[in-house]
Design a protein that fits this description.
Length: 73
């Protein structure tokens, strides 16, 4: 009877786990994610620039004149 146990152990030792090349751990995924990140940041920067160029009103309100009690001069 010890022989079947040895055979089972031997079968367990012979089982090889296949190397799983996961896409989320690959270099391609890293490159794509970096490109998407840079594109997103650049897109937001361009959107903000367009807002400040075309929509933002940069004119200052008039400065009120302050009346002094004595002559400033």
């Amino acid at each position: 009877m010890p022989e079947p146990e040895k055979q089972e152990e031997k079968k367990d030792e012979e089982i090889q786990v296949p190397k799983n090349e996961d896409f989320f751990e690959s270099k391609t995924f890293r490159i794509i994610s970096v490109m998407l990140y840079l594109g997103g940041i650049s897109g937001l920067g361009m959107t903000l620039a367009m807002y400040f160029i075309f929509i933002w009103d940069s004119s200052m309100p008039p400065i009120p004149e302050i009346k002094h009690a004595h002559h400033v001069g």
